[in-house]
Amino acid sequence: MGNSLVSVQIIPKTKNGEDVIPYVDEAISIIEKSGVQYEVHPLETTMEGNLADLFKVIEQMNERMIEIGSTNVISQIKVLYQPDGIEMNQLTKKYKE
Q: Which domain does 56 fall in, by range?
């Protein structure tokens, strides 16, 4: 169990107004490769883990957006930091039953 839940929405600026979905797919693949627990939602992706590790994943996502052609990136981030531990299921379990 990690100490944080972090939701992130990546908004890459593309050079010629291209569709951002391939960029978002690439960002989600970085999360997947990181090995952290995550859930994709329509407007953001929520990750579960240790705060420092999750921020490193976000840094990698931003760097990758630039590598694949984005001129800049806005990352909207929400953080729940709970030092004694937190899991996504603790907040959503009652809605999944």
A: 4-96
Closest CA to 26 of 54, 66, 56, 55: 66
What is the Cα–Cα distance from 71 to 89, expressed in whole angstroms? Answer: 36
**81: alpha, beta or left, given left = phi > 0 and alpha = psi -120 to 50?**
beta
Residue 88 tokens read as 């996504």
What are 9's two structure tokens?
Answer: 């929405």
- Whether the per-residue pLDDT at 17 is higher than 90: the answer is no
Q: What is the C-alpha separation between 35 and 47, in angstroms, rounded?
A: 10
Supply the DSSP string of 39-93, one letter for each residue: EE-SS-EEEEE-HHHHHHHHHHHHHHHHHTT-SEEEEEEEEEE-TT---HHHHHH
- Does the global pTM surpass 0.70? yes
Q: Residue 31's domain is classified under what CATH number? A: 3.30.70.930
Model pLDDT for residues 46-71, shown as the tens digit of each residue: 999 999 999 999 999 999 999 999 99
